[in-house]
Amino acid sequence: MTSLSARWATDDERARWDELVTANPAGGDFLQSSTVAEAKVPHGMEPKHVVFERSGETVSAALFHERRIPGLGKLWLGNRAPGVQRVDELEDHLDALRLFLRRHGRGVFLVTFEPPVVSDDETEAALLASASLTAPDLHRREGIQGN
């Protein structure tokens, strides 16, 4: 299988952002919508639209909110991103995002992400067995997300 890659969304993709988010493997989520992206701008958060693709085909779209933190750099918040449900999908997306940020994420010091992956014994075992998701640059925090 070809590896997943990440890139900035085009103008056309940003114009139809909600359509792309709805097509995510986990389905759409309001927190990934263009409405939420626009609503956070007055609060100092710049929307960053990232598209994940494999062999030229879009796999998913993720919205991150960038906030500048004086003295530290840029914080990216990915509420309900990436829009995947399985651990293998999360691994692929995280690996692609790491590579993308190494090239295009100058000044980004922290990225949070909250994928809609259901927590159960099988998922927990897969998370613990994942090299991508147990890497030294990743800190996992348990939590509850409510919409």
UniProtKB/TrEMBL annotation:
Q: Which residues form a coiled coil?
A: none
Q: Name one GO molecular function term.
A: aminoacyltransferase activity
Instruction: List this protein's GO terms for biological process.
Output: cell wall macromolecule biosynthetic process
Matches recorded under PROSITE patterns: FEMABX
Return the protein name. Answer: Peptidoglycan bridge formation glycyltransferase FemA/FemB family protein
